[in-house]
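Journal club prep, shared notes

We agreed each person brings one worked example of a sequence with its structure written out as tokens. Mine is ASCH domain-containing protein. I'm keeping it raw so we can talk through how to read the token line rather than staring at a rendered picture. Sequence first:
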Amino acid sequence: MNETLPPKTCSIDRLVTKEAEVSKVLAGQKTACRRNGRYADIGETMDLQGSSFTVTKVYQQALGDLTVEDARAEGHETVDEYRDSILSIHPGMPWLPQMKVWVHEFQKAE
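Then the structure, token by token:
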């Protein structure tokens, strides 16, 4: 996976902003974040309440390809739970299986 990524559409400090999501990252329950745009480069660091997290992977994924493992990386038990969470944050947004999102995977920085 060495292809060049397109320019970022937002900054990494906007990747995880909701308090509940920040708590999940800090607790190690959330290790990925999906967004409509690209918010980070591989190797970039995000700081949350004094802890640093390094982005390890950035790639596109269709919503219809989400697995239970993907949902768990997002801090949810099931794909349905993750979908319901996203749709509650974005009222009126359609959940289209072919819609592509940017996946940002990260881990606690050493």
